[in-house]
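Dear support,

I submitted the protein below through the web form. The confirmation email said the job was done, but the results page showed an empty box. After a refresh the structure appeared. I'm attaching both so you can tell me whether what I see now is the final result or a partial one.
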Amino acid sequence: MTDERPLTDQLTAREDRGVLWLTLNRPEAANAITPDQRDRLIELLADAGRRVEVRAVVLTASGKHFCTGADLRHSRPGPERPAGAPERVVGDVARVIQDGAQRLITAVVDCEKPVIGAINGTAAGIGAHLAMACDLVLAADGTRFIEVFVRRGLVPDGAGCWLLPRLVGLQKVKELMFFGDDLPAAEAERIGLVNRVVPADELDKVAGEWATRLASGPTRSIGLTKALLNRSLDSDRPTALREEALAQEINMTTHDANEGVAAFVERRDPDYQGW
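What the results page shows now:
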């Protein structure tokens, strides 16, 4: 099947009061993600981090599915080979993973702005890891998360073996990845993979409310907090405390930190600007 729609229709972006909404829009393909979509999503997340007017991001999808993995029908051809060379050489697969799925997850994790995943349906394979890479995860009731790799005889990619043990216990992650069973949204919430399960018809509303709260907050403070938390499980205590002190030093140069302190002293609500 060939998707004739332009990329701007396959991945839509709109801004509303400081919130950037990114929507995967290939419902006819269960929102399996193509290389072009992936690269554009990476660009938009990097751009969101740079732009002062963007203060929060919501990542969601249209249709019944959030993202059912990579669309292998749209994989890009490899480089031309000299005569007699094999179609695949050592390093090719690793390079595809590093330049593709891993780069996508990294773009979400490293985005300077908070990213809310509004998961509207099945999230499988890289789609599940894309959901779990978000800072906050809302799931519509009926959503399923599937570590589908074992069903195909594959090793999980897209940083799954790094990401999931940081969210839930190692034993539970092994169960999910060894068996590849569907994980219902309610169970995902119970074990801590999801912040909240909401009725499907309220997903956008709740995501909008959460994103609006984030977008009206001290954006740089939240971004620095995100970076500290993401590094916390990889750091020793002296390193973590040193980075915390440096983050506080940087943050105290911002308008919003000074505004927050002044508002506290003056007993009024702060007016955060995002810088």
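Response: this is the final, complete result; the empty box was a page-load delay. The two ends are 46 Å apart (CA to CA).
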